[in-house]
Design a protein that fits this description.
Length: 406
């Protein structure tokens, strides 16, 4: 196995650990906050909602710092911030403190130390099999599920404060050696690339120079492709965030038990994991843009039927199509962005693009909730999501790869 693939595998593992504790695992603390402090669910949910859109609010700054400091160095900065964020969570005594710790500690550290820098490193190291590399990396969230019961077990055994502190220690203990491993591999790959570009006979014969365009942020912002692609991804996030937040309660309203509905959501996440890998593999063989258009069409079809019926014989196949589409879309975004705009300012461009996507992330759950309150049904909301996904297809159709001007 080539050395650079170990970077991807290490990234997948650390992404799984981070997601298990910092994203899915955080929901296990919700009941404890409510019981101990008596805060309303709306107030607590506010912290979780802001945490979900943090990457959009701070994305440009995170991207700029990553490009300036270096992705391989940001691994360690983000790891420290995230780990201390969990330790600080164990000291929370007020609602403003909870908001601060979650957003500026746990979530910011998670983004700085895991999502952004590893994405940048993969984009820079891989050129020929970039989509497959990102597909493997993005399998992390799909295999993080077993960590969520671990968090719940620690809360039940030791209480939520001790569980928060232990979570921070676990993240640091696992993350530090993996970060060192990734750092070392990246430096070796950089040295090999420099040797090849200098004409060294010792460079790997299979290495190829990248023919990606190399846009700066200012140049990318002038391109229609940037805005078409970013808006398409915002619409895609509007659909998937709106569906995922209301998935369980939709089924409960239609007669499913909470346990059954929650289990189906967990199965949905697991189904998406191999799709991330499979679509990553196909992305290196076929046109990524057309693949994404096909996945968005499948997403539209599945969401439309999921909104109209909860019959297991119909809903379950649609949920499988939805999960496969969701996973595949997640693995193709970054390879397309790297192909379109290059790696020169990858983190900064990605951060700005995520700011655009945040609008969809924020609006999806709100639109679904508002329309449910208005109609006492999710049918219209999911029908609108199906149309929104079709809009994303149209945007991807015109979001063709830009060419550098001489």
């Amino acid at each position: 196995m080539e050395r650079k693939w170990w970077l991807v595998i290490a990234g997948c593992i650390t992404h799984a650990v981070n997601t298990g504790f910092s994203y899915f695992g955080m929901s296990a603390f919700f009941p404890s906050f409510e019981r101990e402090f008596g805060w309303s669910r709306t107030a607590i949910s506010g912290a979780f909602s802001l945490a979900r859109i943090e990457s959009g609010l701070l994305g440009p700054l995170e991207g700029y710092l990553t490009d300036r400091v270096g992705a391989h160095r940001m691994l360690f900065i983000g790891l420290i911030v995230c780990s201390f964020g969990f330790i600080a969570l164990s000291w929370v005594t007020s609602l403003p403190m909870l908001y601060t710790v979650m957003i500026l500690g746990i979530v910011l550290g998670s983004s700085l130390g895991y999502n952004m820098p590893i994405s940048v490193l993969i984009a820079k190291v891989f050129h020929e099999r970039r989509s497959l590399a990102f597909g493997i990396f993005r399998m992390g969230p799909g295999i993080s599920g077993p960590l969520v019961p671990l968090v719940g077990w620690m809360i039940g055994l030791w209480g939520w404060r001790t569980a928060a502190a232990v979570s921070g220690i676990i993240i640091f203990s696992i993350g530090l050696p993996i970060a060192c491993f990734i750092y070392r591999i990246y430096l070796q790959e950089e040295a090999a690339t420099s040797s090849f570009e200098a004409g060294s006979a010792h460079a790997p014969a299979t290495r190829r120079l990248s023919n990606d365009p190399q846009f700066t942020l200012r140049e990318a912002l002038r391109l229609k492709a940037f805005w078409f692609f970013s808006t398409a991804m915002a619409l895609r996030h509007m659909v998937t965030e709106g569906v995922s937040v209301h998935f369980v309660i939709l089924l409960v309203d239609r007669g499913w038990t909470t346990a059954a509905a929650s289990s189906l959501l967990g199965i949905s996440a697991l189904i998406g994991a191999p799709a991330r890998l499979g679509m990553g593999w196909l992305g290196d063989l076929l046109d990524k843009r057309k693949l994404m258009m096909g996945l968005l069409l499948a997403l539209s079809f599945s969401v439309l039927l999921m909104g109209y019926t909860a019959e297991a014989l119909i809903f379950t196949p649609c949920m499988i199509i939805y999960s496969l589409s969701y996973g595949g879309l997640a693995s193709l975004q970054e390879p397309i962005r790297a192909d379109y705009f290059g790696t020169k300012a990858f983190a900064t461009i990605q951060g700005m693009s995520r700011s655009v996507q945040t609008a969809g992330t924020f609006l999806g759950p709100i639109i679904a909730g508002f329309l449910y309150d208005l109609t006492r049904s999710y049918t219209i909301a999911f029908g609108i999501f199906a149309l929104v996904s079709l809009g994303a297809v149209a945007l991807m159709f015109v979001a063709k790869r830009p060419q550098m001007r001489n």
